[in-house]
Amino acid sequence: MDTILKVEHLKKYFAVNVGGPFTRQMASLKAVDDVSFDVGRGETVGLVGETGCGKTTVGRTIVGLYKPTAGAITYCDQNLCVLTNEAMRKVRSKLQMIFQDPYASLNPRMTVGNIIGEPMDIFSIGTLAERRERVQELLRTVGLNPEHANRFPHEFSGGQRQRIGIARALAMNPEFIIADEPISALDVSIQAQIVNMLEDLQQNLGLTYLFIAHDLAMVKHISDRVIVLYLGKVVEVDESKDIYRHPLHPYTKALLSAVPIPDPRIEMQRQRIVLKGDLPSPVNPPSGCHFRTRCPIAQPICAEQQPELRDMGSGHMVSCHFVS
Amino acid sequence: MAAQTAWEFKEGALPEGGKFELSPQGSGELQQIAGRPTTYWSDAIRRIRRNRLAVVGFWIIIALLFVAVVGPMVSPYSYEDQDLENTFQSPTLRHPFGTDQLGRDQMTRVMYGSRISLAVGIVCAALNFLIGVTYGGIAAYFGGRVDDIMMRIVDILYGIPTLIIVILLTVLFKDKGVSPLVNVFIAIGLTYWLPMARIVRGEILSLKEREFALAAKTIGAPNNRILFRHLIPNAMGPIIVTVTLEIPSAIFTEAFLSYIGLGVSAPVASWGVLASDGTEAIRSFPYLVLFPALAISLTMFAFNFLGDGLRDALDPRLRQ
After folding, report:
1. CB of B214 within 8 Å of any CB in chain A?
2. How many domains does the structure of chain A reveal?
């Protein structure tokens, strides 16, 4: 499988003011701190972690909404970080994004047809009639009525809006789609529809997904591989069928223990690992292993040494001192 | 039990077999229950129609525009023709607003004055759109240092009173053959886009972080497209409200400047000049100040009512 996207030592720090209302004291919020992974063509990679762990920042940095502080993002042998704005604009047509909130991601002043057709409009692809034709085709692809192209986003339900967002992402025939929590704002019944549609699209159009989510059951369903993020760092990477059965990192174990099991008998016996404390501030992360403040098996070494991401065989990567 | 009988259906009240029937349309397509699609603007128009004062204001402005364009054309008198045999006439059928100290028809002069006032209003609105919206939009969109520098310039210009600008311009253009009206336009041009720039900046600052702006970026939209196609149209509500509230203020500034002798001067008749001339004879001939003053107040009220109505209608938080 050839690699379509390679992220190496990606760092994204945001400048934040930690002083009081009248004092200015800048610090850097380490949203993404040295993250590396790669995505193969046609693969679906799930990116999971709790709120504030840097999932969205990783996605947005890859599509170029944020400039990375350090590191390299290589897409199809092209380093995106060194591209000029103009060159980046061109690459973006192959690298698209689906947004989390279907209510905020569509311009309320544009008709659905204009929203979906805008990428083609920007890159002057085809005549007006051809673009209209393509918009109709895209609407059919995502299961909407092509006659609705003249309506405005607020006339659609959440699930339909998300379909519009997907149609827009598909307009330029992308190869790679970053889905930033595409289903978390939707009802459960609609979530299933959207996920099924994303899977169908992947089959038919040969797409590659980076699927960002915090819903572990959904990630397990859709992903080939899963990357677990904690406080801006990768803690574990594995094939999704394996990681759910044999999680190695204590954080992954705790995360997975929180997934309810749809069988009351097993569910009653399910033991949850409840992590103590809150997510530490990414402005001032713990020394050594970022997870040590909440880790049930933390030892003195964890505060002194940062664990490396080690390969435990067949691509199962873990960053913990005590996993062997 | 007697109490339960109340719950029983009367004979024949239920359809046959006690089942619900499908409606005739039910077998075919879904029933069309959606109303006419309401867009942002149709919704706003519906709400502003309910606001009687705003509607009155709107029609007064339309009438004013009509009078300004057509009035001086159909009037049998010219604004500058003197008739020294008929000075200081009280309102009559021939001269509905009377005549002034040189026998000029006051009604024609007031109608002519509305041209100047509306020209001032239009210039103000145009500059608001051209400079204010673009300036505020660019400052907010690029943010950071660009924003800092651009908004400090606005702050500095804010600190200079309009009156001082006009006096300086008057001195500057004194013998250059420049019409005093140009001074007024430049002064209004320099000062009246400032509040608009601030309001647009505030709007764009919040809009640019919304996901649809990010989405526009990911599909490869260039900066000017994001700013002018995505962000500014979404700030149109506050922009229009600001314009309708800035226009009367500009008109009033012109009237005031003319009143104190810094604006247009005789024989050109602006409302400020007419009011100023009228006050000299206010004891003997009060109608000379009454009509221009009425025209000024009416215009102020009309624009302010419309502006308030628009603000209520376009503010999404007040939506019903």
Report:
1. yes
2. 1
Query: DSSP letter at A208?
Result: E
Out of B212, B218, B221, name the one closest to residue A65 (CB).
B218
Chain A hits for B34, CB-CB cut-off 8 Å, are 155
Q: Provide the residue range defining the domain that includes A147.
A: 3-252
pLDDT of amino acid B10: 53
Asked if A65 and B214 come within 8 Å (Cβ–Cβ), the reply is: yes
Chain B CB within 8 Å of residue A119 CB? yes
Do B215 and A151 count as a contact with CB atoms less than 8 A apart?
no
Q: Is residue B155 classed exposed, middle or buried when 0-12, 13-18 and 19+ CB atoms within 10 A define those classes?
A: exposed
Lowest mean pLDDT among A35-49, A107-121, B174-188: B174-188
Q: How do residues A295-321 score in pLDDT, each as one tens digit?
A: 888 888 888 888 888 888 778 888 888
Residue B211 in contact with partner chain A when CB distance is under 8 A: yes
Nearest to A164 by CA among A218, A111, A215, A223: A111
Compute the nearest-CA separation of A148 from chain B (Å).
11
ipTM of the complex: 0.84
Q: How far apart are the C-alpha atoms of B204 and A9, rounded to whole Å? A: 34
Q: How many residues does chain A have?
A: 324
Residues 6+ apart with CB under 8 A from A120: A126, A131, A134, A171, A172
Contacts of B225 in chain A (CB under 8 A): 122
Residue A195, in any domain of the structure: yes
pLDDT value of position B17: 52
The alpha carbon of A115 is separated from its chain's Cα centroid by a whole number of angstroms, namely 23
Closest by alpha carbon to A297, among A255, A259, A251, A257?
A: A251
Q: To the nearest whole angstrom, how far is the Cα of B127 from the nearest Cα of chain A?
A: 24
> Which numeric CATH code is attached to B55-72+98-318?
1.10.3720.10
Token digits for B44? 């706003």
CATH number of the domain residue A222 falls in = 3.40.50.300
Residue A312 counted as domain residue: no
Are the beta carbons of B221 and A90 separated by less than 8 Å? no
pLDDT in tens, A276-294: 778 888 888 888 888 888 8
| B233 near A CB under 8 A | yes
Does A97 sit within 8 Å of B218, measured CB to CB? yes
Q: What is the distance in angstroms between the Cα of B224 and the nearest Cα belonging to chain A?
A: 12
For residue A178, tell me if it sits in a domain: yes
The sign of the dihedral angle between the CA atoms of A247, A251, A252, A257 is positive
- Cα–Cα distance, B154 to B172 (Å, whole number): 23
Question: Does A162 fall in a domain?
Answer: yes
CB contact under 8 A, B218 and A108: no
Domains of chain B, by residue range, sit at: 55-72+98-318
Contact A107 B230 (CB under 8 A): yes
Q: What is the pTM of this model?
A: 0.78
Report the distance separating Cα B224 and Cα B230, nearest Å: 9
